[in-house]
Each structure stands twice: as structure tokens, then as C-alpha cells.
Sequence to fold (186 residues):
Amino acid sequence: MLDGMSLRFPIRIAVKSELRLVELKQSQELFALVEANRAQLGKYLPWVEPTRSAADVEKFLRGALKQHADNLGFHGCIWHEKRPVGMAGFHPIDWANRNVALGYWIAREAQGKGLVTAAVRALLRVSFRHYELHRVEIQCATGNRKSCAIARRLGFRREGVLRGVQKLGEDYNDTVVYSMLDSEWE
Ligand SMILES: CC(C)(COP(=O)(O)OP(=O)(O)OC[C@H]1O[C@@H](n2cnc3c(N)ncnc32)[C@H](O)[C@@H]1OP(=O)(O)O)[C@@H](O)C(=O)NCCC(=O)NCCS
Fold:
């Protein structure tokens, strides 16, 4: 099964928690979530600084839905106790090489419960079982301890460090590359 449009949402990830495909009508609510968490998210995510209105979020959501419609992977909203608390999803799938990279963030109030680990575990299942991909990658800034911990907790292998690859404000971050191959999953 390779067609993302045949995926069934919501995807249950934990008790009272699920991954739902993003919707355009969420732009205001998601912008409010980004605003409330701007300092912690902006530390590691370059898109946070230029995201200044619900219209900016709506533009992102349109792109995300087109990506899903083009069968290049989806962006999911992490819902916990009936409220959106973060996001987890795919960078556009490289079908020629059957590779993909994942991204995620969560509001401070919902951290420390294992929700993102559970969401990424679900994305691994979709990657290897549904899309039948060969390789899944996660890149984290070297200082992003909590993000690196997610990759390690799920059994990703550490491949190495890309020096100065991510521009954040005036700084260039080094990132750690983690990967998992289909043969290493489950
Ligand atoms: C990176 C980020 C998503 C990590 O969030 P998180 O809440 O630590 O991640 P999880 O939801 O997987 O929770 C893991 C924590 O819950 C705890 N936990 C509780 N129950 C758990 C369970 N059932 N399974 C796994 N972990 C559990 C873990 O021990 C861990 O806590 P610790 O940090 O005190 O060791 C978050 O810090 C964030 O949004 N940062 C800013 C954006 C960002 O950096 N994104 C990633 C870019 S690469």
C-alpha cells in the first residue's frame, strides 16, 4: 500500500491521544498555540520566527494538505484530551530513494508525557507498513536533548553530525542525523 490518501484518520497514538490530519480551519487555533510557545519552539524550529499571523499558518496548512494530496506524506496534529497540542509529520517523501525525514513539536503544557514519542512511533508504522519506505530520518540540533532522546528511545541509529547546516537567526546549528531502516524496525 503506497497511497497516502487511503490512510485512515485519526490514528490512535496513546490513551486519549491521536494524530489527525491537519485542517485549514485550525489556522487560528494553531497560531495561538505557536504564539503561546514561541520562545521554546523558536529555539529549534526556523519557521517559528517568520510565522506572525494565522494567515501564515493557513499558508503552511494549504501546503501541507497539497503535500498529502500529492502523496508526499502528511502533517498530523497531535490531539490530547480533545485538544490540539502539537504536530508531527513528514517532510516530502523522496520516492525515488524511498526515504523520508520527520518533524515534530509540542506545546510546553503537553510535554513530558511521551506523546511525541508515541506520535513518531505511529509515523514509523505508517512509513514502513503503509508507504513501504526504506529509510526514515530525524535531524535534531546537537543541543536539543529532548528531541535527540525521542530518536534514541525509538531505536534510531545515530549517523553523525552535519556542521552548521541549520540557520536560526544569526546562528548556524549543527544537527545530529538519526535514521532507521525498514530492516531495523520492529
Ligand atoms: C522535542 C520535543 C517535541 C520533545 O517533547 P517531549 O515532551 O520531551 O517528548 P515526548 O512527548 O516524547 O515525551 C518524552 C518525555 O515524557 C516522559 N514520558 C512519560 N511517559 C512516557 C511514555 N509512555 N513514553 C515515552 N516517554 C514518556 C519521558 O521520560 C520524557 O521525559 P524527560 O524529558 O523528562 O525524560 C519538545 O521539547 C518540543 O516541541 N521542542 C521544541 C520543538 C523541537 O525541538 N522540535 C524538534 C525539532 S528536531
Remarks:
- The mean pLDDT is 97.
